[in-house]
Amino acid sequence: MRVIFLLVLPFMSLQVTRLTKIYGSQKALDEVSFSASPGRILGFLGPNGAGKSTTMKIITGYLSADSGEVSILGEDALAQPKKVSPKIGYLPEHNPLYLDLYVREFLEFSGGLYGLKSAEIRRRTDDLIRKTGLLPEQHKKIGQLSKGYRQRVGLARALIHDPQVVILDEPTTGLDPNQLVDIRNLILEVAENKTLIFSTHIMQEVEAICQDVVIINRGKILAASPLSELKASSSQTELILETEEAMELVWFEGIGAVRFGQKGNREIILPTEDPSETRKALMQVVAQQQLNLISLNQGKKNLETLFREITSAQ
């Protein structure tokens, strides 16, 4: 099993140590350990069912752990969840909203739950409605909003009490490309002075906004590293071949472990330690199959490739 641990950062506002959760005979979490620091976005990455949401729910006090420790800003989050809760902003995977409340009404109600004074509630609500782009929708009922705007309301609710640690569980699921860009920019702005954990299974989102990454699978941490160091740890490069015609993987069997890329069967990706020779072999196939070449590019392995290698080696 390949395990990579390179995450050595300064002050850690969140420290998770040997966290374990058992359901019957199944270990949902198996001694999970990682940390996060202010001003950086940590991508918490794993396939569905890997243990991401379970970890987030334990950190935020929604679930109990069977063993382990969670420290948030120096406080024991497992022993004192009510004391630690106001320091955390949490957007769960299934965004729980009161659909019959108006946007502004819901945010002001949420601020009251944290004991904010009336003037502070109004100030925070005005600020977050502006920052999250909810101004045109603030007088609508939440049930009338699109998926993208509901996500914005959930994010504003998670930030209403100005928490120092923000945890977002699959915040971009179901959003269209324009909504993705808006939410991504908002997350980047929020993370400037907070500790932010971004739980997802979408590699492109992690590469776009995260500085650090933790990879979990089957309840075990397989990698914890700055994203740049994780990428640099691979000595292999990738060749990406795109043609006008559809290709078949069997044509490339003698060259290496080839797979289709994001453009389907018109694009293949091939990891290699000898780009020069591999490029020649690919061009031979292009000639033999009489393909019209669009491009043949070379680059380092992306996060999706590394993720697949790390999780498949478990």
Automatic annotation (TrEMBL):
Pfam families per the UniProt record, alphabetical: ABC_tran
Keyword ATP-binding part of the UniProt annotation: yes
GO molecular function, one term: ATP binding
Domain of life, per lineage: Bacteria
PROSITE patterns per UniProt: ABC_TRANSPORTER_2
Cross-referenced InterPro entries: AAA+_ATPase, ABC_transporter-like_ATP-bd, Motility-assoc_ABC_GldA, P-loop_NTPase
Keywords recorded for this protein, A-Z: ATP-binding, Nucleotide-binding, Transport
Keyword hit for Transport: yes
Ranges where the ABC transporter domain occurs: 14-243
Family, per entry: Belongs to the ABC transporter superfamily.
Protein name per Swiss-Prot or TrEMBL: Protein involved in gliding motility GldA
